[in-house]
Structures are given as structure tokens and as C-alpha cells.
Amino acid sequence: MIQQIQDTSSSNYDKNIELKAFDDTKAGVKGLVDAGITQVPRIFIHPEVSGSGPSPSLEETRFVFPIIDLENINKDPIKHKEIVKKVGDASETWGFFQVINHGIPMSVLDEMLRGARGFFEQDIDVKKKYYHRDYTRRVVYNSNFDLYNPKALAVNWRDSLYSTMGPEPFNPEELPEACREIVMEYSHHVMKMGCTLLELLSESLGLKTSHLKEMECSEGLSILCNYYPSCPQPDLTIGLSKHTDNDFFTILLQDDIGGLQVLHHNHWVDVPPTPGALVINIGDLISNDKYKSVDHRALSNKIGPRISIASFFSSGPLPSSKLYGPIEELLSENNPPKYRATTLKDFYDHFSQKGLDGTSNLSHYKI
């Protein structure tokens, strides 16, 4: 498979030919690693890590990544109030936080990671039937959703399995057998947790508990399983380019390898893998810049594979005329709307056309 990739040392190098050769293998980045490559192909060389990107990772004790304990959240009113404040503070200052004692059993988390890995590591002939770039289908396996987008900074060192679980009813038979049962079980748990988070976010914004849920922020759920193979030259490429999430919020399950970084006070800060914890981050659609939708990325690593599972809460690119904009109840003379309202379909179409080009999704909608 790798023999089809163009010789990048050639003076006749054509990026599009190399992209197509890579795509045609349907083996993803894992196929390159399985073929025994020792150098990263040219299409993967990324400016973020090859000398012209943002400042390198900085680990300082003054940056303590927020961890919020949800234990007894519905049993102790005082604890509930404290949690609401912590959620608000973390969302306003970081845009990211981790939660522990969230109610999803460790056995389910572990099995979800195993199921995702099992899908990517099965025989390529089994995976190939899911490999395509038609995102109107409910299940999509490929490498880099924006592979052919000329605005994308580089190809990411990552393969993905994307499943649109809702709002429309989902037939489990559409999922690959290797992870079918656990994806269905995990989606049930994560949807329940998502509804709890929407209540906490609503309360922390000073809104009634059901406000964000009534805005249909929990109607849609998409689950993205990410597979980051070991990389022979992690200093040249990146697992996932800098971006913000084009949803209401995201729940991320990551394994113990690490690699997720958040841009905080102009420094890349590692999000430490914490056993049993889930990472929560604010998406572009949740508030009028009161809560931060911040840039984050995933590094490549010689150690691998790294597995992560991102659950995106949004109604998705459905043909709806419903407009979403800054929450009216939070607007005032001192806090005017910073973004124009748009349909979610328009928002996702813009994101798809833009790709991972290192710029903000929201800048296009700024007033």
C-alpha cells in the first residue's frame, strides 16, 4: 500500500497525487505504520510542530487543570451549588475541565476504548466497507475529514470512526461489529451525562436548569473514535491540528498515553490523563464568549496507538431553519451580541469548507 505514495523527494512532487494515493489505500495512517515507514510522508509535515507554529508546550505549576468531582451532586444541595460554581469558573477561564465520579462505570469506559481499538486493528478488508467520505451516512471511517481541503495546514496523523447517533433513531446494525455493542451502551451513558452537564451549565449561566436542554442542545449526539498510531517522527507532524469544536460541548474519553493540549494564556498546556475522568470542553455554540471555546490539539507520539473517544453534542447539519445565536436572556447593553445568528447546517457547512486551517470557526459570524 505505501509503495503507492509518491516519492516526495522528486522535483515533480504533486501533493494531490500523494493525497489520492494515500486515500486510495483505505488503510489510513495505520496502513503507513504497518508498512514499516521510517519517515513521515511530506503531506503530514505540519507547521505547528516543525518550527513555524505556536509556542511549544509549557508545563508550569501555576497552570492547574480543573478537575471537578460530581459525587453526590443530586443528594447534597450545598455540594450541588459548589459544583455549579466550579463548572462556571472553569468554563469561563479555561473552556475545559475534567469530571470524576460522573456515574459512568469504569468498566464501560475501558470497554469503549478497547472496542474502538478493536475496530481499527482488525483486518483492513473488514474495515474497508466503512471507508468513505460521505458524511450524510451515519457511520464513516476514514483518515482526515478535510484530506482534500486546500486550506488544511497538513494531513493529521490520525484515523477516525465517526457515528451520528442522533437525533434521528439509529440502527445498531449500521455500526461495525467490533464495537457495536459498546458504542450503543456508551452512547446511552454519555447522553445521560450530557443532560446533567447542560443543567449545570444552564445554572452556572444564571438560567433556569432546563434552558439549554429546551434549546435542543442535547438533541444530537455524534461519537468520534480517534486512533493515533505510533509516529516515527513526531516532531514533524501532529495528531490533530489546532481547532475549536463546532458544537455545544464535547465529552472526551482518553486513554493513559496523553497528547491532548489546550491553549491557555498563549501556552500549550497538557491535559493530564486521569484514570476514570472525562474531559469536558465548551464548543463554539454555547455562549456569547462568556464561556470559552478554546483552541486545542493532539500531539503525535512515538508511543502508540493512542485512543480517544469524543462525544459531540449538537443537532448536527440537519436541514432546519432554526436559528442559533447568543442567548437572549444573557444579552444587555453592556453585553451585546458578538455573533450573528445562523442555522446549524450553515455553521457546519462553513466548518467543512474551511477545514482545519488554524482559524476560528466563529470569526466568520462575528458582528
TrEMBL record:
Entry's Gene Ontology molecular function annotations: 2-oxoglutarate-dependent dioxygenase activity; L-ascorbic acid binding; metal ion binding
**Keyword vocabulary terms for this entry:** Iron, Metal-binding, Oxidoreductase, Vitamin C
What are the BP-aspect GO terms? coumarin biosynthetic process; response to molecule of fungal origin
Q: One Pfam family, short name please?
A: DIOX_N
| Source organism, top-level taxon | Eukaryota
Segments forming domain Fe2OG dioxygenase = 219-315
Q: What span is annotated as the signal peptide, if there is one?
A: none
Can the keyword Iron be found in this entry's annotation?
yes
InterPro entries associated with the record? DIOX_N, IPNS-like_FE2OG_OXY, IPNS-like_sf, Oxoglu/Fe-dep_dioxygenase_dom
Q: Family assignment?
A: Belongs to the iron/ascorbate-dependent oxidoreductase family.
Q: What is this protein called?
A: Fe2OG dioxygenase domain-containing protein
